[in-house]
Design a protein that fits this description.
Shape of chain A: globular
Strand content of chain B: under 5%
Largest interface: A-B, 19 and 17 residues
Helix content of chain A: 25-40%
Oligomer: heterodimer
Number of domains of chain B: 2
Strand content of chain A: 25-35%
Number of helices of chain B: 15
Shape of chain B: extended
Helix content of chain B: over 70%
Order of helices and strands of chain B: HHHHHHHHHHHHHHH
Number of domains of chain A: 2
Structural class of chain A: alpha/beta
CATH class of the largest domain in chain A: Alpha Beta
Radius of gyration of chain A: 17 Å
Chain lengths: 223, 268
């Protein structure tokens, strides 16, 4: 009998694998393993593909995602991470996936079709007001950002000011190489975090080695 | 919850439409075609090298006499065996009487090794495939020329269709290209050089993709930077006309450019 351990809401561990319960049984979204235990089907969450999974692997203290959470996700890309978050938040939750590229949206739309708690939109995270109408009336519990822009911290702050509720959580994946190709990774990440400190309480900063090079995941809470 | 479902339905439809709109129109097709042209060039170069090296075991003198890849491949494909390299037959496919005569003697007393019928048949097939690739590239570049003429009439007159497509691909979209200053257009495609310049103070690049432009490649090395600057300035105006006013001002721009280039050549 395989032993499955629950480590966070909706996040499970089996041996060395991270798993989420598949909300669309029988369907793979990006070629991941499907594992059947008892009567439930679980999907393997690959830390090499998803920075949140890498963060959890590297010892993230808490995952601020509950059933029914409302999440704004900037830089949704093809929806790998989003599909797992969608598993966790369940039918009552809602996740807004924003990306600027139409190319990745083509693939993302496939995932949206089978998962009813994902709302896709093409938008520029640098201009949060451009999708204001779509988000009107929703209070956002978690702002997740993973974009390859130079001013990652500024984009994060801009969006959090407009949408994130007080005491809401932020998860920011910092891509050091998009900020500078030359400087030391640690210095860049320290600089970016210091920009957040006025408005956020930084809970934890994680290096994402060995899953991603020159990346960090920052968990913070809005003051 | 109802509200969320409504919103989701609405946004799904909108996003789907946005995606379709983004890829409709000739722009993205041109970008793909130009990308394919570059890839085909690489592939056919590699294939030609392989054919030449292989065939040179059998008939090494041919590569010394015939440098042009297409003519070489044509000869390998049409004549194949050394006995066929007579002056008369060679000149059917390669218009150079002197070389044709030389090839006939070389084929008889060359230093090439024997090769079996099977081997030669393989090489022949390979040369046919490389010729087909070259053919495909011609069709594609025709297609790219036509599309470029359609979506950027002014720009493609000055830059030429394929180069126009390459620059469009590098910039990302016509809108982005139209917003660029002339200095950016001048070094578009010279990413490595410009970053080396910024990072470690190497010399700044004078031209990127524009290096392939006939005007830039025809002037002496000393004047290349200046020529690139002239062409870039005109291209900047042209792409703005293409994107915003949609007027055809290509004739005027072309004359202007020619005048300036001949003045530049005169000053040396």
């Amino acid at each position: 009998m395989k032993k499955i351990k629950k480590i966070f809401t909706g996040v499970y561990k089996l041996d060395n694998y991270l798993l989420t319960k598949n909300s669309v049984p029988g369907k793979r979204t990006y070629g991941e393993e499907l594992i059947k235990i008892d009567d439930n089907e679980y999907r393997e969450w690959n830390p090499f593909r998803s920075k949140l999974a890498a963060g959890i692997k590297n010892g993230l203290k808490e995952v601020p995602i509950e059933e029914g959470s409302k999440i704004l996700y900037l830089g949704s890309a093809e929806g790998t991470t989003i599909s797992h978050i969608s598993d966790i938040i369940g039918k009552k939750g809602l996740i807004f996936g924003v990306d600027i590229s139409a190319k990745v949206m083509q693939k993302f739309l496939y995932i949206c079709e089978t998962r009813e708690n994902i709302v896709p939109m093409i938008g520029d995270a640098e201009q949060p007001h451009s999708y204001r109408n779509n988000l009107a009336g929703f209070s956002i519990d978690l702002l997740y950002q993973d974009v390859s822009q130079r001013n990652q911290a500024e984009i994060f702050l801009k969006n959090s000011r407009m949408y994130l509720k007080r005491n809401g959580y932020g998860l920011l994946a910092i891509k050091a190489r998009s900020i500078s190709a030359k400087e030391n990774t640690k210095d860049i990440i320290r600089q970016e975090i210091s920009k957040l400190k006025k408005e956020f309480k930084v809970v934890q900063t994680l290096d994402l080695k060995p899953f991603d090079k020159d990346h960090a995941l920052v968990l913070c809470k809005k003051k | 919850m109802n509200k969320a479902a409504d919103l989701r339905r609405k946004l799904m439809a909108k996003t789907r439409k946005d995606v379709q709109e983004k890829f409709s129109g000739d722009e993205s097709h041109l970008v793909k075609a130009v990308g394919l042209i570059q890839t085909l060039d690489e592939i056919s170069n590699i294939m030609f090298e392989q054919v030449r090296e292989w065939y040179a075991l059998y008939f090494p003198e041919l590569e010394r006499k015939v440098k042009d890849p297409e003519a070489y491949l044509r000869l390998v494909y049409e004549l194949t065996e050394k006995e066929n390299f007579t002056q008369k037959k060679v000149s059917e496919f390669y218009k150079n009487e002197k070389v044709a005569a030389e090839l006939e003697t070389l084929a008889k007393n060359g230093v090439g090794a024997e090769a079996s019928k099977e081997t030669i048949a393989e090489i022949k097939l390979l040369s046919l495939n490389s010729l087909n690739l070259k053919e495909e590239r011609k069709f594609l570049s025709n297609y790219a020329e036509n599309i470029a003429k359609k979506i950027m009439p002014n720009f493609s007159v000055i830059a030429g269709g394929v180069l126009a497509g390459k620059m469009l691909a590098k910039a990302g979209s016509l809108k982005k290209l139209s917003m660029m200053p002339a200095s950016t257009i001048q070094i578009l495609g010279a990413d490595k050089a410009i970053f080396a310049h910024i990072k470690s103070g190497a010399k700044s690049p004078k031209h990127g993709l524009l290096f392939q432009h006939p005007i830039v490649s025809s002037v002496p090395k000393k004047l290349k930077g200046k020529a690139a600057k002239l062409v870039a300035a005109k291209l900047t105006i042209a792409v703005k006309a293409d994107y915003f006013s949609k007027e055809n001002i290509s004739e005027k721009l072309k004359q202007d450019l020619e005048k300036k280039v001949s003045a530049l050549k005169g000053t040396k």
